[in-house]
Each structure stands twice: as structure tokens, then as C-alpha cells.
Amino acid sequence: MIALARPRGTRFALGVLLGALAAGSGVALLSVAAWLIARAAEHPPITALSVAVVATRALGVSRGVTRYLERLVTHDAAFRTLADVRVRVYERLARTEPVRRFRSGDLVSRLVSDTDATQDLLVRGLTPPLVAVVTGGATVVFCTVLLVPGGLLLGLGLVLAGLAVPLVAAALGRGPGRRQAAARGELSTALVDTLYGAPDLVAYGAMDRAVRRVTDADAELTRIARRDAALLGFGAGATALITGLTVWGTLLLGVAAVEGESLSAISLAVLVLTALAAFEVVAPLPAVAARLGAIRAGGERLFDVLDTPPSIAPPRGAADSDGPDGSGGPGGEPAEGEAGAGADTDTALASGADTGLRVRSLRVRYAPHEPWALDGVDIDVPAGRTVAVVGPSGAGKSTLAAVLLRFRDPDAGTVELGGADITAHPADAVRAVVTGVPQDPHIFASTVRENLRLAAPGADDDRLWAALERARLADEVRAMPQGLSTEVGSHGLRLSGGMRQRLALARALLAAPRVLVLDEPTAHLDPDTRDAVVADLLAAAEGYSTLLITHDMAGLDRVDDIYVVSEGRVVQHGTHEELAAQQDGWYAAALKV
């Protein structure tokens, strides 16, 4: 995490210098004030005090100015570093793999609270300890010059308050810090699940259990927060105790030195008040140390996202140019090889010459020791034809869709689009040619217009209506109170299941693809709606190279070719009539159900 701040190391160094000047001004201010008060008690000429009076005023001003500049510089550097971290996290999430591997509420907690841990480390965990070392060391040297035993005692006290107490606080806070990060993620997850699942929870009488889960998570987080507060209290109390003992010890040593005439009374006042001021430098350190466990746990959760291995490798020629975050070149820009590959893909795939799909010996599995989700699949989708892939649940159909849409890389075999291997080109360039309707299309809590414009931000209303007409949704949208400006609600809850599928199809059509992949488009629909949606989808997809992935048998008499997949293998292939005639096959048996 500290390495993330390396590009702004100069600014942080300047912040440490300004912090040391501010802390040094504070210590010097009390030292000069002690000398001024003690010397004034001797009733000297006013001219003998003028320099100290001016110095007191100057130190008071410099303390405030340098403290302000230190906060300005360090916070600016920390916030800019934090912005860089967030950009890296968002760039990583844009590659979809982390989004699919973490629970939504927990992911929100990682994005917000755990990312903010970087700020706590940079603002509170770096500058104060370094300032304490510089200023505390200088103060000990000064006090040692006045009185060697007093300086040594002050050094011991500063080491105890600024190192021993923080180490104990850090050790005690390590476990609660880890539990706090996990509890925060659990609370976020419980809240999100309860809010978004409220209709189903109420319908099945499970709302009380869900609310109890939120309450328990909140109680656990509160308990950990109390433990954290106790640690902060321990740090403050221990520091105050060590400060008092050290000041008393310095005072006793100084009094003995005054009696022995090895130290003047004025120097005694300066020594004692300087020792007292020195502990202000180390006072923040125990609180920082107690937070280190939470900061470390937050950093580990943050890097769990950043270090999630990609499901798709960079295209050939770009692998060696990737930045440290896997996002191409520095700052998340596409690497040179990737940009070139993207240009080649646009030329090879978007030219419209031949955008048929050709899958050969495709093998995919999700872990080295797991069975193959796809095991040697061969499929052809000729340009402009509609091909269906059917089979029971768990046959590997959705894995095939994930490969075609570049959410996963093949472990073996090839997928060619227009004669070009899709793994040799950037994922976004392939998705510009291949798009589709997923099993559960996400409808954003916005208007119909804005949901459509995700695929074509510059599309005017005429183009949007044309896409809705083709998706057989225009009449329903016209009947809505505000037409294209109608709010569809969170996750499109104001739309029926069939309307959500048609809206997702209209959005896909606006992207002007050459290949459509329809992954289980009739999932969760009733039979009547399912038949209508299939008919509309196939009609809208006419003229595209279309791959329909489904376990439903509705509308398959309208496709050109059918592949039956079971346990990751193609077990039947032919037209609807040919497969229906094979009475001993899966397809004919499924038609009878």
C-alpha cells in the first residue's frame, strides 16, 4: 500500500518536513515561553526579554502556518493517491471477473471503506511517525545538552510512549481490525440482500430472519468498535501515564542538578516544559498503531480485488506490455500491442465480409481439478443463420456464452469469428462485433431512453424507436405514461419479464453487432410469455448470425440448425425435423415433456 504512494514521494517528504517544523515550533514555543517566564521573574530590563517576546510570537505564527501547509500537502498527496487507487479498482472491476467473484454488498464495502484505508495509512500512518522521529530526536538532543540525565530520561519516555505503547496497541488491535473489516462487509451484504430481496422475503415470511441477520451483523460491528475504542483509551491512558512519570522524573533530576549548581533555575524551567511539550509529538502514535490491524485488513481485502486473476488473457502482442494492474500500459491505457490488435480486429471483424462463428475442440473448466464444463465442443454458426444450442441445465451452455462474449478464455481449442481467433484480439473489440442478451439482463434504475443509450450514447429518439419496433416493444413503451422518459424502477421492476428481455434485445440491436448470442432468453418466464418472447427475439434477430442458447424447446422449429449439448459434449446435431425423428435421442424426449 505504501508503494502506491511512491509517485508522490516528494510531496510526502515535504509534508514530513513541514510537520517536523510545525511540531518543532510547538516544542520551541513552550521552551521559549518557559525561559521568558522564568527570566521575567528576575525582573530584568525589558530589552533583555524583547528577543524572547518576538521569538514567541514568531513561533506561534510559524506553528500555525506550517501545520496548515503540512495538512494541505499531505492530504493533497493522500487524496490524489486515493483517487489513483479507486481508478485502479474500477478498471479492475471493468474487466468483470472480480464483480462475479464477490458478493455485491461486500464488494461495495471493499470499494468504499477498504479503499479509504489507504488514506488512513498515508495521512495518519506515515507522516506522524516520521515527524515524531525527527522532532523527538532533536528535542532529546536539546534536553541532553541542558542536562544529560534529563535528556536520557526524556529519550526513554519518548521511546516507551512512541514505540512500546504503539507496538502493544498494534498487537492488541490486529485481531479486532481483521474482524472489523469482515464485519463491515457482512453488514453491507446483509443490508443489500435484505433491501433487494424484500419482496421475496416478505412473500415467504423470511423478513424477520433477514432483519435479524442485519441486526446481528450490526451488533458484531458495534462490539468490535467498542473494543477499538477501548484500545484507543488504553493508548491515550498509557501515554498520559508515561508522560507524567517522565516529566516528574525530569523535574526531580533537574531540582537535584539545581541544588548541585550544575543547572540554573531558568534552565530547569526550560527542561521540564520542553519535556512536557515533546510528548505532544508522540501522542497520536498509539491511536494510529491501534488502527493498523484494520488498515492492513482493509488493504488485504482491497488487493483481493486488484489481484483477482483475469479470466481472459491479454491478446498476443500485448501481454508483455501490461501495466502492474493488468490494465495495459501505465495509468490503465491500452498497451501498444493491444491497441494494434484492436485496430486489426476492427478491420478483420467489423468489415462485414464474413462474421460466421466457428468453434473447434473447445474445452473449458473452472479449476484445474474440476471436470470439464465444455469438453471438445465443435459448433458452426454460418453468417446470417440462426443456430440453437440446447441441452439440460448444467450441460455447459452458459459457459459457451461466456467464452463467446469474452468473459472466459478457452483452456483448449479455438473460437474463430470471421476467420479471426477471438483470443488474439482485445475483448472490447470482439464485443463490438458480438453482443447478446444474457440470461438475466440488468436493467438500470433509470428511464427507458437511458437504458437503451447504454449501447449507443449518441442515438436519437428515432433510432431508439426503430430498435424498439424491431424488438416488438414499441407499442408497450408508447402506452407508458412518459414514453421513452418513463422510469423503469430498480432492476426494471416496473417492467414484466418479457418486456425486460425485449428491452435488453433492443439495447443489443442498437450496438449494431454482427453476431447475436441469446443466452437463456426465456428463463423465469411463464409458457405463454416464453413463446411470444422467443418469436419476437428470433424475428428481431433475422439477418444476424444468431446463436440461441436455451433449455426450452419453444420456437426451435424456426432455427436453421440445432446442437444438443450434454455434460460438455455435443451429443446430437441437425435440423429440428432431423432431431425430432431420432426417437432415442435427448431432443425427441425433451419435445414430449
UniProtKB/TrEMBL annotation:
Organism the protein comes from: Streptomonospora mangrovi
Record-linked PROSITE patterns: ABC_TM1F, ABC_TRANSPORTER_1, ABC_TRANSPORTER_2
Bias-annotated ranges (Gly residues): 325-334
Domain annotation ABC transporter: ranges: 357-592
Compositional bias per record (Low complexity), positions renumbered to this chain: 337-349
Coiled coil: none
Biological process according to GO: cell redox homeostasis; glutathione transmembrane transport
Protein name: Thiol reductant ABC exporter subunit CydC
ABC transmembrane type-1 domain location: 13-294
MF GO annotations: ABC-type transporter activity; ATP binding; ATP hydrolysis activity; ATPase-coupled lipid transmembrane transporter activity
Gene (UniProt): cydC
Key words, A-Z: ATP-binding, Membrane, Nucleotide-binding, Transmembrane, Transmembrane helix
Subcellular location: Cell membrane
Entry membrane topology: Multi-pass membrane protein
A single cellular component GO annotation: plasma membrane
Gene3D superfamilies listed in its UniProt record: ABC transporter type 1, transmembrane domain, P-loop containing nucleotide triphosphate hydrolases
Membrane-spanning parts: 12-38, 44-61, 130-148, 154-172, 231-257, 263-283
Region (Disordered): 309-349
Top-rank lineage group of the source organism: Bacteria
